[in-house]
Amino acid sequence: MFEGVPLTWFLITGTIMFFVGIYGFLVRKNLITILMSTELILNSVNINFVAFNKILYPGHLEGMFFTIFIIAVAAAEASVAIAIIINIYRRLVSINVEKMDEMKY
Amino acid sequence: MTTNQLMFAIFSAVIIIFSILTVTSRRILRAATFLLFVLVATGGMYFLLRFNFLAAIQLALYAGGIVVLIIFSILLTSHIADKLEAPGWKKVVPALVAVAFGAVITIATILQYQFPQEVMSGSERTDIHVIAKSLISTEKFGYALPFEVISILLLAAMVGAIILAKKRKD
To answer: Where in chain B are the domains?
Structure first.
């Protein structure tokens, strides 16, 4: 039983973190900073899952397992994304998204 | 103010302030460091909710693994002294409007919604024995299939990352 902090506070923290991540995703031009915004978005979802799990269903563990799987997927995604970023840097000597227009016709 | 509320306030403030700094800082290495603070504070949030194993995973995998990977790739691809160019107003204003709109709608919905007050009772064990048994169980509330799928995904990601980042021979 977790007491003292209502569920909505966790959800509001998660919401603010999520939309800050979206803002970074829209505004940033460097590929690595875009990847960091994605990590923020995934983390905010994790906070929501864990808070729902603990406060509404304390006898279950579904939220925790979903969070574990999201963390695993995020790790896989980050490693592949960084491999792609390094490959792009090798070819174009830049990781600015606005300079990547080779495949546009 | 109870201890839970105080700790929640600290972690929540750290998360919000440093996530804003992460997306606005113009030095990329500083942005990565601020991201590290956000991830550690999220781990603290898991400790606050008594998910100790999950907090350990968060610290080891996110703060220890992904941030180090991001910092390595920053050192490989950027000059540390360089500042990122500031985004123009034509980009910032529409993004801010869209984000503020989304955040206001979501927070209003959360505040309006009536969450159930009574909670489901049951054992509250979140120790490592329960987690391990659920992860390899095929019965109800067992997660054997996602566990296997995620292991294949991790293997595929590892092979893919090596192939992609490897130097071409030609």
So the answer is: 1-84, 125-170
Q: What is the ipTM of this complex?
A: 0.92
Helix (H, G, I), strand (E, B) or coil at B12: helix
CB atoms B161 and A79 under 8 Å: yes
Alpha-carbon distance of B72 to B64, in angstroms, equals 12
Q: Which residues pair with B54 in a beta bridge?
A: none
Beta bridge partners of A96: A30
Q: A96, A30 in Cβ contact below 8 A?
A: yes
Q: Do B110 and A12 touch (CB under 8 A)?
A: yes
Q: What is the pTM of this model?
A: 0.91
Handedness of CA A39, B8, A19, B74 (dihedral sign): negative
Fold of A7-99: Helix Hairpins (1.10.287)
Tell me the chain A residues in contact with residue B165 when contact means C-beta distances shorter than 8 Å.
82-83, 86-87
CATH 1.20.120.1200 for domain B1-84, yes or no, is yes
Give B-chain residues touching A3 at CB under 8 angstroms.
2, 4
d(CA A56, CA B118): 8
pLDDT tens per residue, chain B (170 residues)? Answer: 788 899 999 999 999 999 999 999 888 999 999 999 999 999 999 999 888 899 999 999 988 889 999 999 999 888 877 787 788 888 899 999 999 999 999 999 999 988 877 666 666 676 788 888 888 888 888 889 999 999 999 999 999 999 988 877 76
